[in-house]
Amino acid sequence: xxxxxxxxxxxxxxxxxxxxxxxxxxxxxxxxxxxxxxxxxxxxxxxxxxxxxxxxxxxxxxxxxxxxxxxxxxxxxxxxxxxxxxxxxxxxxxxxxxxxxxxxxxxxxxxxxxxxxxxxxxxxxxxxxxxxxxxxxxxxxxxxxxxxxxxxxxxxxxxxxxxxxxxxxxxxxxxxxxxxxxxxxxxxxxxxxxxxxxxxxxxxxxxxxxxxxxxxxxxxxxxxxxxxxxxxxxxxxxxxxxxxxxxxxxxxxxxxxxxxxxxxxxxxxxxxxxxxxxxxxxxxxxxxxxxxxxxxxxxxxxxxxxxxxxxxxxxxxxxxxxxxxxxxxxxxxxxxxxxxxxxxxxxxxxxxxxxxxxxxxxxxxxxxxxxxxxxxxxxxxxxxxxxxxxxxxxxxxxxxxxxxxxxxxxxxxxxxxxxxxxxxxxxxxxxxxxxxxxxxxxxxxxxxxxxxxxxxxxxxxxxxxxxxxxxxxxxxxxxxxxxxxxxxxxxxxxxxxx
Amino acid sequence: xxxxxxxxxxxxxxxxxxxxxxxxxxxxxxxxxxxxxxxxxxxxxxxxxxxxxxxxxxxxxxxxxxxxxxxxxxxxxxxxxxxxxxxxxxxxxxxxxxxxxxxxxxxxxxxxxxxxxxxxxxxxxxxxxxxxxxxxxxxxxxxxxxxxxxxxxxxxxxxxxxxxxxxxxxxxxxxxxxxxxxxxxxxxxxxxxxxxxxxxxxxxxxxxxxxxxxxxxxxxxxxxxxxxxxxxxxxxxxxxxxxxxxxxxxxxxxxxxxxxxxxxxxxxxxxxxxxxxxxxxxxxxxxxxxxxxxxxxxxxxxxxxxxxxxxxxxxxxxxxxxxxxxxxxxxxxxxxxxxxxxxxxxxxxxxxxxxxxxxxxxxxxxxxxxxxxxxxxxxxxxxxxxxxxxxxxxxxxxxxxxxxxxxxxxxxxxxxxxxxxxxxxxxxxxxxxxxxxxxxxxxxxxxxxxxxxxxxxxxxxxxxxxxxxxxxxxxxxxxxxxxxxxxxxxxxxxxxxxxxxxxxx
Amino acid sequence: xxxxxxxxxxxxxxxxxxxxxxxxxxxxxxxxxxxxxxxxxxxxxxxxxxxxxxxxxxxxxxxxxxxxxxxxxxxxxxxxxxxxxxxxxxxxxxxxxxx
Lengths: 498, 505, 99
Ligand SMILES: [Mg+2]
Ligand SMILES: [Zn+2]
Prior knowledge:
The complex is a heterotrimer.
Chain A lengths: L5 H10 L4 H19 L2 E4 L1 H16 L11 E5 L26 H8 L3 E6 L33 H8 L5 E5 L6 H7 L2 E4 L20 E5 L2 H11 L17 H7 L6 E5 L9 H16 L3 E5 L7 H16 L20 H12 L2 H14 L5 H24 L2 E5 L15 H5 L6 H6 L2 E9 L6 E8 L4 H19 L15
Parallel strand pairs in A: 2-3, 2-4, 7-8, 7-9
Antiparallel strand pairs in A: 1-3, 4-6, 5-6, 5-10, 9-11, 10-11
Chain B lengths: L4 H7 E12 L36 E2 H13 L3 E2 L6 E4 L9 E4 L6 E12 L2 E16 L3 E5 L11 E5 L6 E7 L9 H19 L11 E11 L9 E6 L2 H20 L8 E4 L6 E3 L12 E2 L10 H9 L5 H12 L3 H9 L3 H9 L4 H19 L10 H13 L4 H12 L5 H8 L7 H14 L1 H8 L6 H11 L6 H11 L9
Helix pairs in contact in B: 3-4, 8-9, 8-10, 10-11, 11-12, 13-15, 15-16
Chain C lengths: L5 H10 L6 H18 L2 H4 L17 E2 L9 H4 L6 E2 L2 E5 L7
Antiparallel strand pairs in C: 2-3
Helix pairs in contact in C: 1-2
Bound molecules: magnesium ion and zinc ion.
């Protein structure tokens, strides 16, 4: 049962083959069995999840109309605030904090009857591409426990690959949904910026952050997308327009006559051979399904990484200023005649990890007087150039595609001391965030040289998220036909699993 | 060796700059739905947004934008077609996010002016104060310092924070430097704040209570040698919370700067705090290194781009400009300049106008408010608006006097009674038994008694010595406990003694 | 070429309110040099005529009506406070300007 898709689990509940409580218990059991190895979860809310599940079962049996994902369990990235549930964003500075409010995403999940199993591990404050920056220890990739599950949402994607949950919520600032999806062989979608409310999402980089669905199939992602998307009056940057019809697109999976643009700059040198071959193979399948493959050029993408590593640190240096030991979180050094200032300094020294400090210092520098124009200002101009590149490219293609990551999952510890090498992981995902458009990653096979999953990225113009789902569903169907079974059926069994 | 003000202005020219922070009187806060009511229990008007909790996001209060635009329009500003919010980053425990959402390079209103008039020995003088910008921002929480000897921040053991005020909408109005005020700088500063306050009050956008901090002024002062081009170093005085203090602070800083400059010392660019008790300023804690606020566009808020239709709608809702209104009322009521100044000084314009609108004669209405009522207010050390008497009461009293139901003397007792909380004018009249004795037979009886008591005086009058009537009229008034109309008594008395009524009292 | 000295980084750490040891400052100064050299590439194409983009989706005039909504209870507001007293957040002595 736990290896099925969310959609299939829902159907089973509708048919009465299983209750939400049973389904939730199965997943809790799985978590107990394998999470010591995977470490996808920071907190499991056993009682809360079962209570939610029983409430959905009761509603269903009393004939109440419930949503398509009612009763399906979900893993929530720990960056998303949930009332009364420990929320840390992977940071020591928030250890023990229980928020007094729900994020909009959590409210929508609760309303839809989705059962929240617990909070998943992540790079501290979503800063990282490997989940090694979590203050609570790394998450391991279920395909190979010595490898990273991607980041920052490594916990969410790993929980899907390890069958600990059929659905998860991620957040994506520079690739934190798509890159973990790629390296774990799962699906991850970053919706258009403003498509899903950021209210209650602990901010890393406000102008780039976007929550989105993580799942094992394109249709599951679409179903979850529809649950969490929509305008929210509590988020001024939320788009006040109807949610794109992503479920309809995912069900039809029709790409006949669509123009698919291959971004020249996101494929070539620096991309692993197996990544490139799987990508090329997918293009052929899409062509066979009726799409027209064209090549587009986005010359300014080569500056995207540099601009990202100015904008995101700048915004985070300000967003993370609130963690000051005054109102919530840990407090260090409040002894004797210590001043508030010294307590702030000590708490932030102890409470933040190295990568967070590095980015705060970088951002503080980029915003400081005398350097603002050269760094932050120039980065915002590069953002304009990247948006222009996308506009031009979308004039000749309905969607753009690329490999999601240059490589498959690397070894834990391999890049831990080389920030620049780590940053390069996000080279293909970052332009999407810079322009605020939508991006999806879905598995397109295993790299022959290491047997690890490869991600295929689809990018669509702002508020045209349904196009990613059409193309994603078409490719998924073609690959499934070719493979005969889902990619995850090839994942090595974890000790403790049946 | 303290310099006199005259010594200062003989040698130096002051250059003013004023920053006024105004708390808007919206119902809810700038970026969240928490109430702005004053005086709530600690931390009862807070939420994830105004506590800066992880994940919370601001959304701008529409009324705050409209109030800011109204202020800009009333101050002759251009309303920016595109403006936005920025973050001003610095750490302080009363600021929950450790940045203030403010406006920086693209404020909502720019380039306005306010013409202020001051009353000098050389007559009324006009000064134009140019406004650089009007921008929106949010207030901070309040801290209570516990322990230590002074109860102040220095030497306190710890502090307690209440964030009810955090996120209250503020508008900051910044002038350009105001040169050329010469010796009148302190008065210009005071008049600017006073007239700005009148405008804000007429717009209805703020309570403008300086004592409660809903209007706060920072005064920047520098001196330069008369004739010199180069501006001097300025000091910025905060904590100025009354009109009188604005004047005192500017004057005090001018003298302090001049003393330093005369000794060949430098004026330090710093923040100073005004001390209400001494009228002097005290240096704030000097920062070892300059603060770098690292402003950048607030990514959680989208730009404000008011279209022409919105601005026009607001412009149409503007009330009459206070300076135009003053001129109009002065003309309509035929008020001499000096008395107009007195009325403004006593903050009595609104209340007099209200009284007139209720039917009272303008001169009489002004007479009551600036005369008897002001006297009582002064004696009790409160403003006239704080007394228990209303424009409606005064209008009624004026009407009763006009009808002859009350004498001026009786009316004064009624005013006193109303202020003492004895009820409406009619209730005071009834309970104190204040009735003009208009029963002519009763008056005649009293006149007879007076004549009988002072036969020689009556005889003088019969012989044509009319001024002697005063003594008998006085006796009748005393007999009737002041409730008679003295003019009528005089008429009856003179007729009774066969004399013409030639002199009006 | 070193762009940031230890004292530059110390000043940034002071602005950011993070205590750092000299060793950390030195290490970070070296790292910053490498990272800054990489990110400085933005200057190659950021010419004066290009308008900066601060928001990816161009929307404006998003406001809320001036309506009071429910606040947290003081208990909820203070639930995460490291220290509290009389429904107020208790903080160490503030060495700063008098407000
Ligand atoms: Mg300000
Ligand atoms: Zn609030």
